[in-house]
Amino acid sequence: MDIQAYIILSLILFTIGVTGVLIRRNAIIVFMCIELMLNSVNLLLVAFSKMHAASAAVKASPTYASDAQVFVFFIMVVAAAEVTVGLSIIVLLFRNTRSVDINFLNRLKY
Amino acid sequence: MSLTTILFILLSLMSVGGALMMLTTKNPVMSVIWLIVVFFSISGHYVMLNAQFLAVVNIIVYAGAIMVLFLFVIMLMNLNSDTEPMRNYKMQMIGVVSGGCLLLIILSALKQLKAAPVQIAVGDQGLIHTLGKTLFTNYVVPFEVASVLFLSAMVGAILIGKKDEENAV
Lengths: 110, 169
Known about the structure:
heterodimer; A: mainly alpha; Helix Hairpins; B: mainly alpha; 2 domains; 7 helices
């Protein structure tokens, strides 16, 4: 497979995520679209690391090629932490307003 | 067409279709299910790219833990397609057009890129053995920082989530 195919796939997924953030008003769906964007970037990172797997720098040091996958691992870690805090904020919003509409968030205080 | 090309096209169709369905369906529970489909197809891509460990972690962490958390919250709030707040038609069109513009601009910027093949099914950089060695030699400090981050996220979630008892009395 060419790297272009992976770039275009990740780009399409990322754009779907951006569009979702723009067109949906449910805070949970917006959050899920952010997860989708993170995942598309993860996929691209893995694809690029695979593209460079045969280069000379990788052959010189054996752990060099798995650096990108460690990065993806850390992105997943940060995403998991982000989801816990973000969802609890959404639950708090729901408890105060009985709705998950993000238009209620423009005041931030009740 | 080789087998990997067919697999790539199938997985790509699955992920793009799932993402579009997630965006267009009105019921939030169905959105979560479609996002799980996307995550499974991305895990398939990881397997094809020799990232076996990441594929498993993606399924366990994303499809297993994070999406279940989303489902719990949605079911706790009793959200369905009737309570779904929707933007008006004009705002939706503006959002779609701006998203399409972003796609077109980045695509046109990538046109000068040289085609480089991605080596599929060679190398062992995705195995737990290699990844663990990298994680615990070069990335020990970020690993420990990640554990602190998790702890603070957990404490923060509990703090935000619990009822304000002092102010209630």
